[in-house]
């Protein structure tokens, strides 16, 4: 059961990403947390997610998710915006994200290419 608005949990998680706050991110993950990037499962539990994010932040400098739109349907949060990065040009792009929230924690964080097809699938304008 969620005690806070699922959108708030997703935004808190994103704030931790933007601050490169691994401990904060892990504290907001369920034990079975999944990270899915562009339809590829990157990690499927809290500890493997920690390792993936540590490696990501080591390689990628000044990465930020800039959420410009956020919607929720029950415990699923859909976000649209841009990603920016100072050293990997291919990461500067429009992005869609979804988060599944369970008991005020993120059980799944998924990153999508911002395409019309994905916008229709996620039902975000």
Report on this structure.
With 125 residues, the protein is α+β, with helices and mostly antiparallel strands. It has a single domain, classed as Nuclear Transport Factor 2, Chain: A (Roll). It is 32% helix and 41% strand. It has four helices and six strands; from the N terminus they run H-H-E-E-H-E-E-E-E-H. A six-stranded mixed β-sheet has the order 2-1-6-5-4-3, with helices on both faces. The mean pLDDT is 94.
Features:
4 helices; globular; 32% helix; alpha+beta; Nuclear Transport Factor 2, Chain: A; 6-stranded mixed beta sheet
CATH class category: Alpha Beta
For the record, give the distance between the C-alpha atoms at the N and C termini, rounded to a whole number. 28 Å
Tally of extended strands?
Answer: 6
Helix content: 25-40%
Determine the structural class based on helices, strands and strand pairing. Answer: alpha+beta
How many domains is the backbone divided into?
Answer: 1
Q: What's the mean pLDDT score?
A: 94
Radius of gyration: 13 Å
Based on CA inertia axes, which overall geometry fits?
globular
Task: Put the structure in a nutshell.
This protein is α+β, with helices and mostly antiparallel strands. It contains four helices and six strands. Strand 4 (76-84) and strand 5 (93-102) form a beta hairpin.
Write the layout of secondary structure elements.
Layout: H1 6-18, H2 22-27, E1 29-37, E2 40-43, H3 46-59, E3 64-73, E4 76-84, E5 93-102, E6 105-113, H4 116-122
Parallel strand pairs: 1-6
Antiparallel strand pairs: 1-2, 3-4, 4-5, 5-6
């Amino acid at each position: 059961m969620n005690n806070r608005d699922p959108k708030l949990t997703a935004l808190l998680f994103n704030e931790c990403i933007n601050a490169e706050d691994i401990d904060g991110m892990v504290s907001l993950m369920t034990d079975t947390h999944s990270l899915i990037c562009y339809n590829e499962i990157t990690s499927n539990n809290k500890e493997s997610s920690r390792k993936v994010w540590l490696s990501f932040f080591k390689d990628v400098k000044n990465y930020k998710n800039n959420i410009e739109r956020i919607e929720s349907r029950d415990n699923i949060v859909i976000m649209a915006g841009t990603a920016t990065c100072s050293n990997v040009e291919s990461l500067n792009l429009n992005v869609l994200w979804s988060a599944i929230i369970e008991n005020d924690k993120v059980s799944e964080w998924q990153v999508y290419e911002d395409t019309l097809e994905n916008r229709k699938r996620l039902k975000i304008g």
